[in-house]
User: Fold these one by one.
Assistant:
Number 1:
Amino acid sequence: MRWAFAALLGLGALAACGERAPNVYPQSAHERFNMSCPPESAACVCTWDRITRTVTYEEYEAALSRFRETGLMDPRITRAKTQCLERHRE
């Protein structure tokens, strides 16, 4: 019994160290993203994955609004895009 409990604790610790699960986004947001960054591109797939794991849909929409108004993008989104472009040079 103790072994099973220890195993469960170990699995929980490993899960805590893993990557966050993606936040929920509506399909329409992904479709809009794909209009400017095609899903055939590994960098685009990576960028969308990182964005959805980093910011909530509400934060993403606020970042896009600020970008349209000021030309400044949320650093978390810029970081996600940069990391993916560097990793997936095409």
Note: The first helix runs from residue 2 to 17.
Number 2:
Amino acid sequence: MAVVQLYVGRDCHLCEIARSALARLAEDEPFGVEEIDITGVPELEAAYREWLPVIELAGERISVYRVEEEPLLARLREIGRAHV
């Protein structure tokens, strides 16, 4: 099963929206979510803070600020076909 990385920060309302959107999508297209809180981690803060939330899959940045469903679903399906 593919695992989506969701980079979040404390008190991030857009992160809450992204979390809910990913949970909804996972009901129809099975994938896991690894949530990574960047709060207080200097390297992660420098790399991700201005873009939160950030959604990545297989080392590829899929979207920032929000969950872009179509690109994410397309990439999940590509990965799924590669593992069949």
Note: The mean pLDDT is 94.
